[in-house]
Please model this.
Amino acid sequence: MIRSRKTAVAVFVATAALALSGCSSSGGAQKDDTSSDGGGNVASTPRVKIAMVTHAAPGDTFWDIVRAGAEAAAKKDNVDLNYQGAPEAADQVNLVQSAIDSKVAGIAVTMAKADAVTPVIKSASDAGIPVTVLNAGGVDAWKATGAIGYFGSDENVAGQAVGTRLSGEGAKKVLCVIQEQGNVALDARCAGIKTTFSGSVENIFVTGTDMPSVQQTITSKLQQDPAIDRVVTLGAPFALTAVKSVADAGSSAVVATFDTNKELVAAVQSGDVEFAIDQQPYLQGYLAVDALWLNINNGNTIGGGSATLTGPAFIDKTNIDRVAEFAAKGTR
Model:
């Protein structure tokens, strides 16, 4: 299993959170759509508003896990969290600008379209609003925005791990399925596979918001090229669709993927999907909010100017039952 030592920051965060938190059973937090006291321990720090803006596409269950982590941190930290997703970069920019205009205390944002969102993130930083970047934007692009930290995976390194594993398995040709053109994180994954894979890698672009089209595109490609023996998708829903495409095409290709959801966990258990690369989305959402709370209330930053890595790690037959316990709760 591949893990960065930087993920140990979670231990630090938990310790710092306890140091800053009061043990108010219910009075410190208020109920709203995304954060409630729930009767547990809630920070005694003043209630603040934090916006989280992601590039989530409708129906992509990966983001449900990110949001669950963010909401758990918000609940603990007495934060009024406003979560919104917008797959189009222009819409994401508008949402961040709205958060700035409403004078939120902090902003957590993804940078899948880094060129488009960098200026508005700089505007937030210039306005004195702390910003954390999560999930997408690379391990370096966030630094130019004035953000206080990045929580996510180094996607090129994750791709390299996949390429190395597939080479060891004797695979010859990989089809890397990219569901969103222009998403730098997805591009980096396929590029990383090419770096270490001993065979050949071909990228194919699909429209991730149209799953029947995704299935047909992959099926057609497999029918055209029987030499493809591995299909690597970059999100759990697309892996499940690729399994159908393999069957439709009468292909012997094996499916592997990045990221998980409940259904994907079941597919690994059944053997329909060989493995998944986990970037721990729950942790990304949690740390992005918790880091803002720590900064607002204690001036803390995490990572020492470097990205805080939450992955990659392999999920396969050797550990899937353990992961399934958490997936049932919606946190893996």
Observations:
- Residues 155-278 form a domain with the Rossmann fold fold (CATH 3.40.50.2300).
- The first strand starts at residue 48 and ends at 54.
